[in-house]
Amino acid sequence: MDSTVRGTIEMTAAMTILGTIGWFVVMSGQPIMDVVFWRCAFGAITLLIICAALGLLRGRLSLRIVAIAALGGAAIVVNWLLLFSSFSRASISIATAVYNTQPFMLVGFGALFFSERLTMTKLAWLGIAFTGMLLIVQGSPDAGSDAGPNTGNVGTDYFTGIAMALGAAFFWAVAAIVTKKLKGTPPHLIALIQVCVGVVMLAPFANFSQLPADAWSWSMLATLGVVHTGLMYILMYGAIQKLPTHLHGSLSFIYPVVAILVDVVAFGHRLHPAQIVGAAAILIAAAGMNLGWTLWKSKTPAGSTQAIK
Fold it and tell me: Residue 301's Cα: distance from chain center in Å?
């Protein structure tokens, strides 16, 4: 199978899994700091078992690889904390929209650090996808509607929430760029190092005196660690190493579309027309980036046989 095709499949699967994470976070009923800690802890156990079974722990990792992966892990943990904290200050819809500026940051980093070419077509597809995201947000129910909780409630510290969501997007892009520096390193090991960093970072702040008392909460936290961290990051990091930055950024828009569908199925939220149009725009943009569609015909200069792309 072609490397790009395989990376596309992996990224699509990862974003689909990620789209369900909000339901598990809400249903766990735990404080944000504890959710992130247990996500890292269960993820570390899962990845340790996988790495051992694949024989990846027998080789010796260089200090450089460990240091770079640890840097990415710190960025990932800060990303989670900022994003989850932004929900209580700005609406979840607005915070998610702001957070989805990450592909633009990622494309910019790719051009800056990897000399990846920025064409008008790439920027146009990303612009269409982001416009779709804005339509989804503007179509969200107003506060006090019957669509369900956390769909349009603006917190008291709105601008701080916006800043946190932007910060989360920045640190996500940093983690993605750091991962590209580890090309050739098994994504299982990268993810293992990063969640272990998360455990060390958050252990002093986790509330061990009031652990979840029911099996349901533990099952939610375990799923966040095993599926949404262990499996999802293996898929995502494997895709990052195979895909050009602009394609990876485009496919990341699958995540909010899946999240909306989960809202419909799990919470009965109704999609407004603007949200339907926005979701369609995101999917079309992702397909356009993936399949190399163009939005306009290039003009070939007289006497030239090569079109400008």
Answer: 41
Considering the entire predicted model, what is its pTM?
Answer: 0.75
**Residue 280: C-alpha distances to residues 18, 255, 273, 277, 303 (Å):** 19, 13, 11, 5, 40
What distance in Å separates the CA atoms of residue 243 and residue 284, rounded to the nearest whole number?
19
Structure confidence by residue, pLDDT tens digits, 270-294:
667 876 787 778 777 776 766 677 8
Let me know: does 291 contact 155? Beta carbons within 8 Å. no
Closest CA to 51 of 188, 164, 225, 173: 188
Render pLDDT for 55-101 as a digit per residue (tens, 0 to 9).
Answer: 888 876 788 889 999 999 999 999 998 887 776 676 566 666 677 77
User: What is the distance of C-alpha 208 from the center of its chain?
Assistant: 28
In this structure, are residues 179 and 240 in contact, taking their beta carbons and an 8 Å threshold? yes
3-state secondary structure the chain: CCHHHHHHHHHHHHHHHHCCHHHHHHHHCCCHHHHHHHHHHHHHHHHHHHHHHCCCCCCCCCHHHHHHHHHHHHHHHHHHHHHHHHCCCCCHHHHHHHHCCHHHHHHHHHHHHCCCCCCHHHHHHHHHHHHHHHHHHHCCCCCCCCCCCCCCCCCCCHHHHHHHHHHHHHHHHHHHHHHHCCCCCCHHHHHHHHHHHHHHHHHHHCCCCCCCCCHHHHHHHHHHHHHHHHHHHHHHHHHHHHCCHHHHHHHCCHHHHHHHHHHHHHHCCCCCHHHHHHHHHHHHHHHHHHHCCCCCCCCCCCCCCCCCC
Count of alpha carbons within 13 Å of 270, Cβ hemisphere only?
7
